[in-house]
Amino acid sequence: MFPEVDRVLVSEAQIRERVGELASEIARDLRAELDAQGQTLQDEDQIVFIPIMTGAMIFVADLVRQMPVKLSLDLVTVSSYPGETVTSKGAHLASDLPENLAGKHVVVLDDILDSGRTLALIKRVVSERKPASLRIAVLLDKKTNRAEAVEADYVGFEIPDEFVVGYGLDYNGYYRNHPEIAVLRPDAIPARDG
């Protein structure tokens, strides 16, 4: 189906199982925090998930369908890999974050944590809005030297320092629909990009 794929790092079955586990872990932690405050998971307007688009769209869709929690979704777009590149050019907001986060339990969702620039930016902006709690969940954590010191509270999989596609992650706008986390063949990425 995708001849440019060199090898698969994480299979469909592994993703499905781990996303279910992440949903349970996040719900458990939110439940414990809300119980400590005398609230329940079903209380009005308490939990806000902020997915970072476009890479996190498939991860988020699968995760939220397994969340036994009343929540709202407020999408944000951050640009960091423009065009045909596998190197982050820095992160900047391409859409506004919600203003009404004060006192709410916020979970930021992203496809991958690598340089840390995107999540550090979102964490700073969300923190300024005084949420009751702020958690970060990522499908993938690429263990590399980060440009920004940020860690995720929930990680689906740790992966090696390789450029990956699939399950929402793209190269030049393509491969988001590949059902697994995969590495492209070296000849599928122009030499100028590394």
Biggest sheet details: 7 strands, mixed
Q: How many beta-strand segments?
A: 10
Structural class: alpha/beta
Order of helices and strands: EHEHEEEEHEEEE
Euclidean distance between termini CA atoms: 25 Å
Quick summary:
The chain is α/β, with parallel strands linked by helices and 194 residues long.
Description:
With 194 residues, this protein is an alpha/beta fold. It has a single domain (11-160), classed as Rossmann fold, CATH 3.40.50. The chain is built from three helices and ten strands; from the N terminus they run E-H-E-H-E-E-E-E-H-E-E-E-E. It has helices at 12-36, 57-64, 117-128, and strands at residues 5-10, 47-53, 72-73, 76-79, 92-93, 105-113, 133-142, 154-159, 164-165, 181-184. Strands 2, 3, 4, 5, 6, 7 and 8 form a seven-stranded mixed sheet that branches. A three-stranded antiparallel sheet has the order 1-10-9, covered by helices on one side. The radius of gyration is 17 Å and the shape is globular.
Layout: helices, strands, pairs:
Blueprint: E1 5-10, H1 12-36, E2 47-53, H2 57-64, E3 72-73, E4 76-79, E5 92-93, E6 105-113, H3 117-128, E7 133-142, E8 154-159, E9 164-165, E10 181-184
Parallel strand pairs: 2-3, 2-4, 2-6, 6-7, 7-8
Antiparallel strand pairs: 1-10, 4-5, 9-10
Helix pairs in contact: 1-2
